[in-house]
């Protein structure tokens, strides 16, 4: 897939990893449809990267009518969708049984799965529907879906029951989706980011930040949205990559 002139649909596109991918796509000659919550920085990012190549559609990925409207808005504006990046996500923390005896709130678990897994599947299926109408490229390719999971999918920590379950589900979804959509020439890949310097780490003190950096084998720094964007770029240009997950974590292995 050529990055130049491609159109990307990015959930969680107003900040963090999604914004990093959006900036890369536009820099390389592509266009982007950013879908994120109404209170996000979507409008500001569009102003930054150019309203001629970027569109922000306020969207709650748990609302299928809003997802459908966002895909339709992208098609109306740019005429096609080539790549879908599922980067939206939440990471609430709670123990299954707290020391006070309080149980993990079931509504928190359900809402985490609804956003991180069910919402991502809905975006993927609706984006795939649009991609299936694309004219095939030289390899017969019509589109690419990238699921953003987490190393918590395989090494979840204390308090991450909901987050790890939802991200593990997203990782497990990748290969079946690739097999399911192969008939349409749509590839599906996933990323397992490690400790990334995104808004999820906002507010932590320097000692905690240093401890997180120390978990990395090499390089000794936090991952960045630009690191993620380079993986997206590699996924796009190499059509032999399909149905697999890649760790982006500087060899971090959590205890």
Give a description of the structure.
- With 255 residues, the chain is of the alpha/beta class.
- 42% of the residues lie in helices and 15% in strands.
- The protein has helices at residues 16-27, 42-49, 64-78, 106-131, 152-155, 161-181, 206-214, 225-237; strands at 7-11, 31-36, 54-58, 83-86, 143-148, 186-193, 245-248.
- A 7-stranded parallel beta sheet has the order 3-2-1-4-5-6-7, sandwiched between helices.
- Helix 1 crosses helix 8 (225-237), helix 3 packs parallel to helix 4 and helix 4 runs parallel beside helix 6 (161-181).
- The chain starts with 6 loop residues before the first strand and ends in a 7-residue tail after the last strand.
- 42% of the residues are buried.
Question: How would you sum up this structure in a few lines?
Answer:
By secondary structure, the chain is an alpha/beta fold. The protein is built from eight helices and seven strands; from the N terminus they run βαβαβαβαβααβααβ. It starts with 6 loop residues before the first strand and ends in a 7-residue tail after the last strand.
Architecture blueprint of SSEs:
Layout (H helix, E strand, L loop, with lengths): L6 E5 L4 H12 L3 E6 L5 H8 L4 E5 L5 H15 L4 E4 L19 H26 L11 E6 L3 H4 L5 H21 L4 E8 L12 H9 L10 H13 L7 E4 L7
Parallel strand pairs: 1-2, 1-4, 2-3, 4-5, 5-6, 6-7
Helix pairs in contact: 1-8, 3-4, 4-6
Strand content: 5-15%
Q: Please report the total strand number as a whole number.
A: 7
SSE string, helices as H and strands as E: EHEHEHEHEHHEHHE
Widest sheet, order of strands: 3-2-1-4-5-6-7
- Average of pLDDT: 96
Class by SSE composition? alpha/beta
């Amino acid at each position: 897939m050529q990055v130049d002139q491609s159109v990307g649909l990015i959930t969680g596109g107003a900040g963090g990893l999604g914004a990093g991918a959006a900036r890369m796509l536009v820099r390389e000659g592509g266009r982007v449809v950013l879908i994120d919550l109404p209170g996000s920085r979507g409008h500001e990012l569009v102003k930054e990267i150019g309203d001629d190549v970027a569109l922000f559609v306020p969207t709650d990925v748990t609302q299928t009518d809003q997802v459908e409207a966002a895909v339709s808005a992208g098609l109306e504006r740019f005429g096609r969708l080539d790549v879908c990046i599922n980067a939206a996500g939440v990471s609430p923390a709670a123990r299954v049984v707290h020391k006070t005896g309080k149980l993990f709130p079931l509504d928190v678990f359900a809402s985490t799965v609804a956003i991180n897994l069910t919402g991502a599947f809905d975006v993927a299926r609706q984006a795939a529907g649009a991609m299936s109408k694309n004219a095939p490229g030289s390899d017969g390719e019509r589109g690419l879906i990238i699921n953003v999971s987490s190393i918590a999918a395989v090494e979840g920590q204390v308090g991450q029951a909901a987050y790890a379950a939802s991200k593990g589900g997203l990782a497990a979804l990748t290969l079946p989706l690739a097999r399911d959509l192969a008939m349409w020439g749509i590839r599906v890949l996933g990323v397992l980011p490690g400790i990334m310097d995104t808004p999820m780490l906002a507010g932590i003190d320097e000692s905690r930040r240093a401890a997180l950096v120390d978990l990395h084998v090499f390089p000794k720094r936090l991952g960045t949205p630009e690191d993620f964007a380079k993986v997206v770029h590699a996924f796009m240009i190499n059509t032999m990559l399909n149905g697999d997950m890649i760790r982006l974590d500087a060899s971090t292995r959590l205890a």
